[in-house]
Amino acid sequence: MVTIRDIARECGVSIATVSNIVNGKKKAGEETEKRVMEAVERLGYTPNNVAKGLRSRRSGLIGVIVEDICQFTVPPIVESIVHHLEDAGMQTVIKNLRLYSRWSDSWFNDESMVLSVSEPAFREFAAHMVDGVIYVGAHMRNVHIVPENYRVPVIMSYSIEHNPDITSVVIDEVSSGYEAVKNLIDNGHRRIGIVAGLADNLHTILRLEGAKKALAEAGIKYDPELVVYAGWQRVDGYNSMPKLIDKNITSVFCMADRMAGGVYIYLYDRRIKVGRDFSVMGYDKQDISDFFSPSLATMALPLSQIGELSVNLLLDRLSDNSTDKGKIIKIPSTLVKGDSVQRCRD
User: For the chain, which domains are there?
Assistant: First the structure.
């Protein structure tokens, strides 16, 4: 185990200097502080006073690890977390892992890449004596991110941790996919195309499960020929439509608003009027959906609620009042009606 003496020896300073720095007592120069904290992170040192005193001592500081703050789902979650922590009298330190900035899409199915930047972040927060950590995923997926035997309470936002002792707060993707397709069915549509994300993506799998549930409930046989697996961008929506438009469909469910934008353009190019000749259902209510004409029917993600609940669960853990340890808590999305979905005229 790395000790404070090892850090002092590595940096060529006294044990007292290292102790002051890791305990937040600024009695050293800026360059020395930087050198010591770099050694703390590099060697994986955790101060003994954190391990011994966490239950009885509070720093009033919460660490928030964010996979990528530029992903559109992340800012509303983080804003909600900061807001509710401030209301609780807690301070926040945010660590942005910048996964997309570093590696584009290549990190998504490579946990080792994520761990290479998340593990130092967890160590750094432990060294800075945070009372707890909230980990905010860029997407909902199953992960094994939290270090084993981590001594600080952790809540997962928008991702599911394999560790059965750690609580995760995510979107109820099944019920949200169900409501999206049910909106089309309630408007008389029975031949419904689905522009899906990547086939192995958890969002795709769960939203499609909800869509199938809505179809079955309405007595409509699920037809895999009416599902196109694409990507999540506008071009993917556009390129999916030639595979669906000639299959006698009257509507389409797009698993992202950006994809719906591509569908709008495809239909416009062919003089098919959205909301009159054909219905389009989106998902996620990105800001761009506010500029669609006609207005896009979509599902608003409960991002702020995820942040708020994550804070409440962490505060419960810190006060030993938690009854949700290790649970996966799912929050449904909200249907936003729009003129893009109208009564089927066939």
Answer: 1-45 (1.10.260.40), 59-172+304-331 (3.40.50.2300), 173-301 (3.40.50.2300)
